# Entry
Amino acid sequence: MNLENIKRDDIDVYNIIESELFRQRNTLELIASENFTSKSVLEAVGSVLTNKYAEGYPGRRYYGGCEHVDEVENLAKDRLKKLFKCEYANVQPHSGSQANMGVFLTFLNQNDTVLGLDLAHGGHLTHGSKVNFSGKIYNFYSYGVSKENHRVDFDQVAKIAKKIKPKLIICGGSAYPRFIEFEKFKEIADSVNAYLMADVAHPSGLIASGLHPSPFPHCDVATSTTHKTLRGPRGGIILLGKDFKNKWGKIAPKSGRIKNVSELLDSSVMPGIQGGPLMHVIAGKAVAFKEALSNEFKSYCQNIVSNAKALEQAFLSLDYDLVSGGTDTHIVLIDLTKNNISGKKAEFELEKVGITTNKNMIPFDERSPLVTSGIRLGTPSLTSRGMGNDEMKIVAKLIDEILTNKGNEYKYEKVKNHIAELCNSFPLYNK
Ligand SMILES: Cc1ncc(COP(=O)(O)O)c(C=O)c1O
# Structure
């Protein structure tokens, strides 16, 4: 990393960045929503494009001097459309939450009824949590997973949908280890004349690689983050498989014609919720989308899934309970109820030796969201370092060593040494 200017001009920030690089290099990153971008993505995000104001969209900006940022935004959009085989893409949302906000502003009015996956069953804050704008502005109801197999309970989804008649149904979440069954959601959405939105923030890289079903043609609209399995910079995107006329008869003022949903989405993002786009991040997105179109990325995603399967098998053989019994994706959610340790404590103890995870609610959790009975693990970051199935078996054993020997300094030291060896064997950002 070339940080010579910061080192000279601002030693405080330089030291913080160096410390974070050291942490990333010398710990095992198992947070399912994180990844390590390529150096090319880092360079784009650190480029002079951060200097440019470009409110509006390519060819119709509110500022002059936009010819080059227009090019990079168009490139990002074209690559993204190719990646998901879709007709429309918006690459401006600053985050996954803002992508969701852009969709809600397009499809909903204040107090409209929406149905999404319960946060405790794997949903996301923006799917109706009372402490989030979604739960404050819209009338959200939740569906959950079944007690037996922890898969979405479609009988329940259909029953609630029939009763509340939502305008929008959301599928997808942040801690659901199984495939999202878009077709089943579509059947229910059609039966109550609701729009269907997929939030594929987590599996989007796997979808792009054909390893997870695609939301299209079943969903009307999809959102994602760009920084999880997609391995891009931090940000959001909105996609339409096919553009369509809006049902609400919103008229374009000059032509008098009914607007397409794509136009409404564009104006919901800007000027609806954002001002100037982060052009340096959009350039980083363009770089990441090119990478994601490559065969190497497909192999990388195959390794992510195969590593998650290896973790699944290793934990099952160590007699751990896994939510839904395992995984189809990059996520493994461990239910620690029978292990006599909370998610919070497990996260804390693992962090002491350099294994980074996050506490997570499990379905029907009796503990609060700040304590929880589970930890969520994900394989994108370790896979980016080049680790494979053998290393996943070791990682599961190291986690087990800590969880079964809480506070045993001797064991902790041994695990730390093992982690140092692993990190040295799979160096990060060394070339
Ligand atoms: C399913 C889902 N949607 C939306 C988001 C929000 O993304 P961001 O943190 O970029 O706002 C996340 C982030 O974890 C997520 O998992």
